Structure prediction request, 112 residues.
Amino acid sequence: MQKLLERIAQIERMERGKLCAMGERPHYNHQTWQDGKNVALYVPAGEVKFVTDAIAGYKLFTELVEQYVDEVIRQTRAEREKEFPKRKTPNKTQKKNEPKEKSPKKRNSTIL
Prediction:
């Protein structure tokens, strides 16, 4: 887990959203959600790599955090199992193991 946290701490830039080319134009739009609204920000050609790297940083961050969460959940469940071992309860009745009686099938009778 410590390695995951170290990798997360190494991410220097993050940005949500995606870059969209503007047809034949030399600039892009950076689309993202802010305050429940879709926002498009102008990105000049010279800044595209910077924003692309920041978007990749956010993607990596979310992947690493998901791995961290999975590991914490695994540890939590292991601790819970250790602290509160499951008890096997005896069967209250043996009827559960006996086969169930089949109910007679209803017959559709037709009047001729």
Summary: The CA atoms of residues 32 and 39 lie 5 Å apart. Helices lie at 2-9, 48-83. The chain is about 40% helix and 15% strand. The longest strand covers residues 28-34.
